Amino acid sequence: MTKLKFAVSVAFLTIFSLTSNAQADKMLEWANQGTVTNESYNSEIPFRYVDGYIFLDIIQNDKKYNFLFDTGAEATVIDKSIIDAFEHQPFSTSSVSGPIIKDEHIKTISLSSIYISDVEFVNIGVISVELNFAKAKFCNKVDGIIGSTLLKKSKWQIDYDKQVIRLSNDISDLLSEEAKYTVETKLPSKGWGTETIELNVDGYVSQFNFDTGNGREKMVSNPNKLEEFKVKNKGSIIEYGFKKSATDYKFIAESVTLGNLKINDQAINLQNEVGNFQLLGNRFFENFMVTVDWDKHQVYLEPTKEMLADEAIGFELNFKPNFENNTIEIATGLKSFTKEHKIEKGATLLKINETDVSNFSHQEFCNFWNVEWPKITDAEKLNIIISEMGKEKELVLTKKKLV
Predict the structure, then answer these.
(1) Which three-class secondary structure state does DSSP give residue 56?
(2) 176-187: pLDDT as tens digits
(3) 64, 114 in Cβ contact below 8 A?
(4) Does the fold of domain 181-303 match that of domain 2-158?
(5) Could you give the CA distance from residue 65 to residue 56 in angstroms, rounded to a whole number?
């Protein structure tokens, strides 16, 4: 039995380790197997761009399934509840552990066929697990993840403006002319998995995962990297967190360089949640037409909008939705503010201005978060009531410069 470790964090999946060279060779075979049956193709499929994440409809046996499009996922994933809708053969069994999946045996399988638009992918390496982590993260049930084991079989183009993904066997079908920026990607030494892009952030040079499964912020790293970033003004580093919890940070980098692209004044978020990963996600890529040639390990970026400078402006508290129980949680807050008001992890929002947010149905909650929440939080001041340990607390939040 192959011994692996999987870490599923928010919306990406990574296989950490194997116990022998023979097992590594077996996983390399599984990850790289598969092909496209169409001899020549140039197709497209619409996607839904929801809260920074890309979702596709996959049609199987005339039924529609909701899949996350995730270049940061090492494997393509299909939820256990629907795996029998797809013809497949067993490949091996793996022992799995991680921050969300705990000591579980999963099946690595060979998927006989899956269509994206009218393009058929066959013999794709897939894993089947229960995608329970997605229940709280996303409004609609996530049936699967289109990950690296499938993505490497084609060329892709993400058009964020038109919300269309194009795929072709020929990169020239996707690039009618040379893109303004060309960025090299790097394949892991094991020969498969999530590719990385080298960033130079104010002199800190490191590899960041090319991760469309990251809908958080533009660039995310881990707080243990803070000392490696050469922040000239240490007072400009914003601290987030709760009492007795690890501290997260944010700062504005003077310059970020990747390939022949250089941009100024960009927010770098350092969050404990990402573990030891560094991520470059949709909030960055949505400013471009993104075209990927996995064979050449290149990403082509054509600007579609001006890349605006980020500012350290916001409220004292940050919120996140929990779609499993239809609540808005206090995700984090300025360390000084949470300490002053004795706010601890686990607090939830009950009311914002005149809107009671504590008794929504699931669909009402989804609609509120996606439509009304951005309008409400565009204000300069928020009057809120939160619940913490069964007690209510009234607070006033003010949008301001945080440093």
Answers:
(1) strand
(2) 899 999 999 999
(3) no
(4) yes
(5) 8
CATH number of 313-401: 2.30.42.10
| Domain range annotation of the chain | 2-158, 181-303, 313-401
Tokens 């009402």 correspond to what residue?
A: 364
CATH of 181-303, one of 2.30.30.40, 2.30.29.30, 3.40.630.10, 2.40.70.10: 2.40.70.10
Between 7 and 299, the higher pLDDT residue:
299
The C-alpha atoms of residue 187 and residue 17 are separated, in whole angstroms, by 16
Sorted by sequence, the CB contacts under 8 Å of residue 358 that are 6+ apart come out as 327, 348, 349, 350, 351, 387
Show contacts of 282-288: CB within 8 Å, 24+ apart: 282/49, 282/52, 282/53, 282/54, 282/160, 282/212, 282/214, 282/215, 283/52, 283/215, 283/216, 283/217, 283/218, 284/218, 284/219, 285/158, 285/160, 285/212, 286/49, 286/160, 287/160, 288/160, 288/181
Beta carbons within 10 angstroms of residue 333's beta carbon:
22
CATH 2.40.70.10 fits 2-158, yes or no: yes
From CA 25, how far away is CA 18, in angstroms rounded? 10
Contact predicate 74/194, CB 8 Å: yes
Distance CA 134, CA 9 (A): 10
Tokens of 5: 């470790």
Identity of the residue numbered 379: A
Query: pTM of the prediction?
Result: 0.93
- pLDDT-derived band at 300 (thresholds 50, 70, 90) equals very high
What's the CA gap between 6 and 65, in Å, rounded? 24
pLDDT digits (tens, 9 = 90+) for 59-114: 999 999 999 999 999 999 999 999 999 999 998 765 554 444 554 566 789 999 99
Mind giving me the DSSP string for 242-277? -TTSPPEEEEEEEEEEETTEEEEEEEEEE-GGGTT-
How far, in Å, CA of 195 to CA of 278, rounded? Answer: 12
The tokens 């471009």 sit on which residue?
288
